[in-house]
What does this fold into?
Amino acid sequence: MEDITKMLHISIVISTHNNFTYKNGCLESVILAINNQININFETIIVDTASDEKNIKFLQRLHKKNPKIKVIYSIINNVSVGRNIGAKAANSELILFLDDDVLLPEKDILEQLVKQAKNKEYGLSATRLWTFKGWYQKNKKFLNEKITQKACDYAIPTSEPNPEVRRKKNDRHLIRTYIGNFGFIKKSALIDVGYWDEYYEGYGREDNAMAFKLYMKYGKPAILEELCVIHVWHEIAKEKYEQLEKNKKIFDRLLKENRIEKFHIGRILYNKDDVVEFIDRNQVNPST
It folds into this structure.
């Protein structure tokens, strides 16, 4: 029988910026968790998007400890640019986009994801638990030791997130992953929709735009709700929310150009119908 690791392959793309300053260097734990995945043939591509000198030195040391990882340095601070650079460098048809603060708590998550990706062009909406505020800073060393010893037993205390920490009305969007947090796209599909839109700056909405393009082209995604990942809690700077407001206006213009009143990303996350509301009521949703 052919070795399963030869049949299952995935490229993991992580865009990162100043992770050691803003997110307590949780990228170290992310990499350890990836490296402990079993029954899967994978490559990890990290794209640094114009981090400062201090953070680049941290990343270089991390790379030295993990030489199999491909690290690419970009002079542009833009998460979509980073994802596009990583995707173009990927050797697999199946690409997992992973945020630099998301942990894989089970050692066969990638194996499960690859199997679910078999008949879909893209997939998202894994269950996303959150660490408690301040927990990672205090337990980073212990956690990294646990991950190294046994990938399926991290003993991380988690909870469903308080929506107030991200200025949300409720937590329904926070406890599912978007396409860039933990989501897969076939490389051929990514090329077909024109890669990630690079005119979104900073925090948010580029995920909505990618989900929109994929939904309009391919219909409903694979829903990964049975897979669970862990988001490492961190602060969001005030200027990030200002960028989010600008990005929202850009995304709204995209919808209007396509004669769409509303695009309900939450309905995609929970596999609901009526995702798109057209301005012309005679139009219908893409086939599902």
